[in-house]
Structures
1.
Amino acid sequence: MDIVFAGTPDVAVPALEALAESEHRIRAVLTRPDAPVGRRRVLTPSPVKTRALELGLDVIEADRLRGEVIARLRELQVDAVAVVAYGAIAGPAALATARLGWFNLHFSLLPAYRGAAPVQRALIDGLDRSGVSVFRIDTGMDTGPVLRRRELDLGHPDVSSALEDYARRGAHELVAAFDDLAAGTAHETPQTGSSSHAEKITAADARLDLTAPVGRVIDRVRGTSPSPGPWVELDGKRTKLFGLSRAPEVTASAEAGTLTSWNGAPVLRCGDGWVHIAEIQPFGKPRMAAADFLHGHGDIRFDHHTDQGA
């Protein structure tokens, strides 16, 4: 088939590469415009744009699907559009530009975790299994019928490793779905069962409730690492924590939120046990080893925060 690929971040690159290596023909790549990155706000192309140019593909840049972009897509007269984390809503006019429609690779088993952050929310919720779905885009929020779905493990230590794994495995499912579309054998199944919404992760989502059980704390760490990164407050100021892991061997007693040392290693008390902590970044200061921080301050207790949504 003749297709357009629409995507923007790193997580979309494996699918672009897989489709470029398939029997389908990518007529153009649709991605969001160059954006400022870093403290110096250097204008930087999206990872998808960078890879598309390396592959010699035409690139269309747009943050909204309307006007000239719609006209350009119509001129291409493609059979279908493949979407992976493009970052803009395709309305009826855009969806009508491809003969067979637009199809999205989503990183959950729909209808669970519809929305912007399915993997992050699943990790925070403590799931050990999730998956990927390829579905037809309609005018709802991730509500269209599913062509392919694959259940996958979710035992990853953080969002980065989970998304890298799901992007790679999902790319194969997307190509298979397009192979089925080309052959006329694609089967579309309406979504059934309970739905849930995965809202975009904010800094507030990364705040740790140290009165919660260790398992819940670790789940929130996994779901917010490496970005925006787990944090707590010390004397009312945000303090970032890095390298948290379970410490079942620690038997000391202390109030939740206490940072101390056990056999020479920094440990942090949660509601029902302890976690190791590798590094810490106090507000306005550079990141440092947690052991060095303890040497300079002695035992401390972070401010209490209760996650009312837990």
2.
Amino acid sequence: MARSSTGTAAPRISPIDPRDLDDWTPAPGDVLTGDRIEGKRIDVFDVAGERLPDLELEECVVDTLRADGADLRGLRIRGSVVEALDAPVLRASSSAWREVRIAGGRVGSAELYDATLNGVEFVGMKLGFLDLRGSTLTDVVFRDCVVDELDIADARLLRIAFDGTRIRSAEGTNTRIEHVDLRTADLDRVERLEGFRGATIGADQLFALAPLLAAQAGYRVD
């Protein structure tokens, strides 16, 4: 397990490269509640507006996942790559993500509360509101993303990094944080950081964030 000079452990991310996949183009009605999809390469997986709780996706590659307004509660996705996620509203509470890479896309509101994310990488994504209340995140990387609002109340974060990611607001109480690394995050436009108490920041960031941190602690700087 990699560690920095401060003792902050880096996320453990394994390469994800599903092999021997069958090309599949799902037609309307092909996917039902609780279905298990395994070993497929899908060009466009359009489930927008569908009711598909407890759907399972294992060792698949999806070029474009369209999931606006879909009911994906209890989603299980493992060993898979999604090249682009398009979901103005993503509803996937109580879902489980294990060894997954989301390589791009845009999500306006992501309802991922009470979810479990393990070995997950988000790359180049635009995330408006990310609701992770009560979720458990282990070995997760946000790389070159934009996160406007992050709610991590009652969540547990272990070995999380925000490489090159711009964060505007992180809120939440009772958040348990271990080895959360913000040193390579873009915090220039941050407005709130209460949810990240216990995270690691750099000395240069501390200088820039001093007025914000003082205000959040209730100090008046004169």
3.
Amino acid sequence: MDGHREMRAADRDREATAERLRVALEEGRLGLHEYDERLARAYAARTYGELDEVVADLPGVASAERSALAPPAPTPPPAGAEPATSTGSGPSGAPTASGEPEAPETRSRLLWIWMPWLRVAAILVPIWLISAVASGHVAGVWPLWVLGPWGGLVLMQSVGLIGVDHGRKRRDRRR
């Protein structure tokens, strides 16, 4: 299997490694800083060997029965009961455009897109507030010069991502 380590990795392999890192972060096995570093290494990896190094010290994915994060299996409805219908809302309670629950992968992609913007906003807005209070007047909301255009771009990406996932769901339903 030595030749396997030198074989070129595909984008799908990098994404699988990124998902494994995300699970390790949620389980508390990695800190946020270490997760960011490993994620960057995973997406920069060219070979299977480089991908293996990123997750070498992490245990394999736990089965649903052993995982503390896995929700309990749904109980079957009693005999003769009508099946429950979808309310058209996602797990967060927000309705989706298609009337179907939002896919978990879509939520994690949206979170991935918005997190850098939210982090910068969490830094710039308090700095502006402190400077406005210290000076005694509000000259202008300068964080909007950064957050406004960037937020517009992120919003367009989000709408495009939801549209792509919605189209995928439609094709899957036709099959």
4.
Amino acid sequence: MKDQLHRHILIEKTPRRIISLVPSQTELLVDLGLESSIVGITKFCVHPIRLKEDKVIVGGTKQVHFDKIKDLNPEIILCNKEENTKEMIQELEKIATVHLSDIYTIEDALELIELYGELFDKENEASAMVKEISNKKFEFEDFIKDQPKRSVAYFIWKQPWMVAARHNFIDELLRLNGFDNYYGNLNRYPEVALKEYLPENADIVMLSSEPFPFKNEHKQEVRPFFPNATILVVDGEMFSWYGSRLLKAFDYFKTLHQHQLSRNFLG
């Protein structure tokens, strides 16, 4: 079979010893009924929280302990082109088969679910999940068509200030929410230079709860640069985790529009 980078990977039998180095993909495995097959995870794999007690933590998403991974004798290692480094993946391939995901769109996310269904003999579970996500997306699109168009600056880091620009999954979900990405003329996750004497005019500023853990107190730090914007702290997992997290994301987005955004814009 092929992974999402169209690389041929050799699978002789259904893998039963899985290491996942991507938090959203770890959650997806559990929701497909594969928790017992997971032997290793990252320190960022926090859903469900019990995994950190039951599974071996082999490192993070950018750096791992290769000796720990080798000792776990995995049959497959699940990675992502964006989350994991090329150098790390090359070393991992010396230990076991590596399956790479590459996610930019909802369609990519649904394809990955189906690929995991095929790979791990969970076709029925994967098909049901894809259908439910697709239905939720359709319902949300019907809801969002009546919402006003607004520009959004989506921050993922501070010191330096970094945003989600175009060509990533966050941008896909911003557009699905009917937002114009304020930094959509830039690429990927750029640093931006903010100056108080040159205020920005985005309608909304979203401070993501991850990877930087923005909280309400950070709103005042960004206020001088966006004096007229509605500033919100948002759940970064809903905007950046693909896989089974999408089962919850559309309900979250609807609540965001109905309550936080409507309250701020209507005063």
